[in-house]
Structures are given as structure tokens and as C-alpha cells.
Amino acid sequence: MFEKGLRRLGVVRRFFSAKTDTSLVRNIGIIAHIDAGKTTTTERMLYFSGKTKRIGNVDEGDTITDFLPQERLRGITIQSAAISFNWQNKFRINLIDTPGHADFTFEVIRSLKVLDGCVTILDAVAGVEAQTEKVWKQAKGIPKVCFINKMDRAGAGFSRTAKEIIAKLNTRILLVNTPIFTADPVSREPVFEGVLDVVAQKVLRWDSKDPLKVSVEEVTVDSQYWSELVQLRESMIETLSEFDEELVEYFLETAEGEYMRIPYDVLIKSIRKLTLANFATPILCGASFRNMGVQPLLDAVVNYLPSPLEAKKPEINTDVSIEVSQKGGAVVNKNNNLCVAQAFKVITDPIRGIMIYVRVYAGCLNSGFTVYNSSTGAKFKIGKLVVMHANVAEEVKELRCGEIGVLTGSTVSENVRTGDTIVTHCIKKDGLRSLDKIKELGLKINPIETPPPVFSAAIEPRTLGNKKMMEDSISKLIREDPSLHVSVDEETGQTLLSGMGQLHLEIAKDRLLNELNADVEVGKVMVSYKETINACCEVQDLETEDGFKFSITVEPLEVARASKNHDDLWQSLSLDDNFLIMEGQLNHGQEWPFQVTLEQITSALISSSIAALQKSGKIANFPLHSCVVRVKSGWTIPLDETSVSKILTQTRMLIFEALNKLEKSEFAVLEPIMHISVNVKQGDMGHVLQDLTGARKANILSIDDEYDMNSGENVDVKFQKIAEDQYLPKDSTMGKASISSSATANKTIRALVPLKEMVTYMNRLRSLTQGSGSYHMGYHGMEQVTTDRLPNILENY
């Protein structure tokens, strides 16, 4: 029997289907603000592609990609889920459904790292929301299509939302399709019934009783939609012509200046060209819950988003060539036999154990081959490979360039973590010796950035005998979710678990108790404070008789950045904006005299730095933030040393000594500052503002009308002008909302606020607005605590 609460993978089936040509593969993610309809849209994609036989429902808790108990209980996506399916009988779509809640932003970050394209879903009523702006920014450089969802809702505004996409997300748009409506026989209000396909010059209507039934009607000169179609096509072609000279030539010579004479395939090619170059974003619309508009969205995914052959090349640490072969995909260092992959996600399955999600960037990864983890220096043999379909695994013999799959086997559990780079030979089972030691075995894909935790909770075992089990359970939790962090106070022995938000820690607590069966008590959730230094430490030297020599100092991050040297090796400590610098290490030459590798030494220095900075604050023993541990050039270790254990202990001691020589006055306490967007009625604004600026110490950035194009985090005058000039059809579904004045519209207050003052804000906002107010909060950065507020903060720690 399975342990209580552990999620088991579905039945494993052997995968015999023919491999899809790499040019026909699409690695995409679905990103959006919470409740925009990501999972609902995903379920329809799976159904219409034939992957599933029934449509899952978020409210009923039976969706394919939201399979965790807490996801089904809460009706939200908590962790990203991968699934593959075919479209048009030839394309292979590898899709990752990501969370929309800000507490799970790391799931979005690590998914975007391995994706080639994105579908951004927007709520037609709410428009561009705060989290939409955030995930759009996180997906910078990745080609996207936008799907304006919920067009069947009262107050839906297709054109208003399209205009906001231009003005707030700073992109040109291409209206691939637009909504059409019919009048309700009783109320005469417009009812969404289909879309006008601008590219194919057709009208598509969906049958409300049969989701697979779609009527298609050619738009001719005598059609009621002809005039609208002409204007939409003219606008689209004008935008395309600004960037595509080939289309201009076709328009003038072959189409003889007639917008309606440019054929479907020519337009598709031009839209694809602009999308891949991130010059413009195709816009489509629909109502996923009512099964409307999803098939054209899938067409847009394969028509406009890149294959792995066209996608952005991975960012790597060394100056080696990455070329693209149309036959085999990316080729690194001109070596067709080199396979390069990156691990981006870890899960624990009760049957298979640790499973590592990887994206293959070059070459072919084969099951049973010996691989090298260039991030840690570990060499090991991998077990079976599988491709995931949510919680169902399909076994494969290989993962080719551009594919996303999973490593399994006992050897991967201790040798691979999120962000690690895997290197191997494509043909020889143990061909690592034939790979270049510096350019190939030393190659690393830039790691996945982990956002800083802002909340913490104390965790204690109920009995001393449960301490080991608690530590093992927390270790499993953090291995799967690196945005969770653990620290132990060496003086008190207290264990603190830190995360991205209150909900994040609630989910972690639930998993500890119900899935991992840890017998623990979890304390009150509290804000995570940090300390920093505002002076450089004295250099601490160590030289031993047996041949160890190190000189180390610690300095503020801004000081290190001001004196940056291009030969220095910078390594992120993945936490609290701290770094390790190894002076001159990028120019150490090809000869390496030591028994342990540079990767192993660097890993040891990172570990010692993290440990030393974790509890070195002199004001309240908080972890240090924005600090740099600098290892001076000239360090050495015994030539015959085969272990890094002494490096760990000795360098950690030097860091402690350096920090201990600073005065307490040279430390400062930092607190998390949040960027908030509060949406309230005009009549409630005074009370809400007074509460924010008074009790919550907020710094008000702006007060805007809810749909004001000039508001948002990424306001750009150029795109505001483009938004005003863009041709858009009339929003017939918005009713009175389309003519509301600034005096009666809801207001959006944007502000920066200390997180401590926002812990119970939802209850207060509901009280001030009689339940009508709402807000969104995201991490802004760490700032020094003001003198008047410091005593109150220290009192609680």
C-alpha cells in the first residue's frame, strides 16, 4: 500500500509512437493572472486534441494538470504540470500549465527557463492585471500569443483588453481573430457566439450543445462582416509591413495593393516572422469554459510559436559556439555527439522515487548512459527516461534536442538538483572521456534564479525521536521546491522554514503533515527579516603546514559591483542576493594541478559561504543580504587532496572571523517591501488611502482609473500612442462600462508597503470597502528598516 497522501503516477505505458520531427515540436507554457482560465483552457486543449475523452472541471476538482490534493481542494494551480499531445496529426505540443498565484512565482520562473513560447491568457472583464504584467516581464524575450478569455461574461471588453495589452505590456498586436455576437432573443443584449478569422476570412461559430461542432462560413463581399474584415485586414497588414519587407513586396507587386488579395499562407508566414522576432503579438479570443475559441488558439500555437530550432539559444557560462542544424537541432562547440540538458524540476514519486525533469538543448539523451553534472562535478549513470502527461508517465528510450522529459533511477536522487547542467555523449554509453574537459565538460547553462523568501515559520518535532524524520521531510520538500528555504539557529536549535508567502507556507505545511507524514508542529507565519553590512571586512588569511592557503573578505554588494573585474568568477549563492567571487578564476588557464575539480572547489566555497552568511547578523542574528564573499587570488590546496571537507570548514571559519571584526553599528536590518495594487470604488478611496499611508506606512506611487492606459508598471509613451492609434472593433458587450467616466470608475492605488504591515490587510480592506475591494501584492525588494519602526520589529524576535 502507498503511504498516506502520497501522489502516485498513473499507469506507466511504453511509448512506441514515431518520433516527431524537431521542426514540428512546440514547447509552450500557459501564463496568466490567477483565475484567468489557464487550467480550463488546458483541459479543452487536451480534449480537442484527442488526448482526453472528457473535459475536466476546475470547480469539480477533476482536471488532468491540477492533480495534487490541495490543487483540487482549493481550485488553483500550485505546481507546474507538463503534458504532451498532438495537433493537426503532425505537430507535437509539450505544454506546461503554470500557477497564477504570486506565491508560486518560482514555478513560473523555472518553467519559462525551458520553454520556447508562451500563451498568455487574459480575462476579458478584468483586462491586463497585476500578475499578467509580472509574468509577461518574466517571459521577456520569449515569443507569445495572447488569448482573451471569458468573452461570454457580462462586461467583457475585447478591444479594451487589446488596447491594454499594447499600452501596459508594451507590444504591437496582430488581431488574428475578433469576437462576433448575436442578440439575445429576450433581453436583446449581445451574446458571444464565435470569432471572425481575419487571416482565413471566415466566421467560426460554436454549437452550445456539442463542443466538437463548429460551423465555418466564408466571409464574402455581401456578408455583414465584410466591412469589418477589410478594416481589420488593412490594420494587420499595415503593422506587418512596418517590419516585413518581403510582405511589402508581395502586397505591391502580386496583390497589386489589395489587402484582401493577400492569401492565407503569406499572412501566416509574415505573422510568424514578427512573432518569433518579438516585434508583435498575435491576439485571439474565446470562452474556454464554453469550449469556444480553443481550436484556433491551438492553430496559433503551431502557426506562430517557435520550434526548438527557432527558439532562443540557452545562456551558457563559456564562450563556445552554439549553431542550429535543421536536421538535429542545436550543436554546441561544433560537436554533433555532445548532449547538453538542464534539470528544471524535481518531484518525489512513491514508486519511482526521485524524478528529475530535464530539457534537452543539444544532442540526444539516452537511457542507461553515463552523464556528467557540470554544475557539481558528479559523474553517474542514469536509469530509465520517461515523458510526463501530468501524473502519468510514458517510458522512452531517448530524449532528443528540444524535448522535455524525466530522469529516473536511484543514481539521480543525490546527483542532480534544480538548475544543474547535464552533459553526456550522444552515442557512446561511457563517452565522457572523449569530450573536451574545459569547453564541454565545463559547460554550464546559467542557473534558474530563485526569488527571495519573505515569510518564515518555526518547525519543531513533536518528540526528539522525530527530529531526523522532520529533517528528512524538510529536505525532500526543499529539493522539490527550491523557493522554500530552511535555516537552523545554532544557539537555540530552532528550525525556520521560509517561503514566498503565507499560502506557500500553508501548502508546505500541508505536504509535511499529510503527504510526508512528518510529526511536527508548525509555528506562526512571520515576516523574514535580513541584515546587511555597510562596510568592508578586513581580509582574513589562512596558511597551513599541509598546504592550504586562502585569503577571504566580505563586502557590500554595491562595493563589489563597482570594482568588478572581467577575470573574476561570480557565483550566485541563490539566496538573499549574496554572491561568491573567486578573483582571476576565469583566466586560470587550461592546466589544472589539483585532484579535485574546480567545480567541486567552487561548490564547497558556495556551501561554506551560504552557511556562514546564514546567521551572522549582529543586530538580531538575521541572515545576511546583499553581501559578497571574495576569495582573493593566489589560493591553493595540497596537490594530493581528494576531499573538499577541509575547504568547507576552513573557509567558513575565515568568513566568520571577517564578519566578527565588524562593529554592530556597521550592520543594518532590512525588511521586504511589497508592490501592491489596490482596486476600490471611488467612494471608498479616501478611507483606503488613509489606512495605507497611516497605519501601513505606504509610499503611494499612483492613483489611476481602473482601465487607465497610462497606469501600470511598464508605462511607455510610445506604446500609449500606438494603443490610441490601433484600429479595434467596438466593444458591444461592455454596456455602461464602456462609457463610464473617471468620476465613477473604480480606482487602482499603486504603492510600496512594508510586508509586515500587509499581513492582515485583506480583512481590513474588506471592512473598509464592505467586501468590494481587492488587491494584488508582489515582492519589490529589501529596504532598510526605519529607526522608528526597528524596536517594534526586534521585540517580536
Automatic annotation (TrEMBL):
GO MF entry, a single one: GTP binding
Keywords assigned: GTP-binding, Mitochondrion, Nucleotide-binding, Protein biosynthesis
GO cellular component, one term: mitochondrion
Keyword NADP appears in the UniProt entry: no
GO BP, sorted A to Z: mitochondrial translation; regulation of mitochondrial membrane potential; ribosome disassembly
Binding residues annotated for GTP, in chain numbering: 32-39, 97-101, 149-152
Xref: InterPro entries: EFG2, EFG_II, EFG_III, EFG_III/V, EFG_V, EFG_V-like, EFTu-like_2, G_TR_CS
Localization: Mitochondrion
UniProt cross-references to HAMAP family, sorted A to Z: mEF_G_2
Protein name: Ribosome-releasing factor 2, mitochondrial
Species per Swiss-Prot/TrEMBL record: Lachancea dasiensis
Recorded name of the encoding gene: MEF2
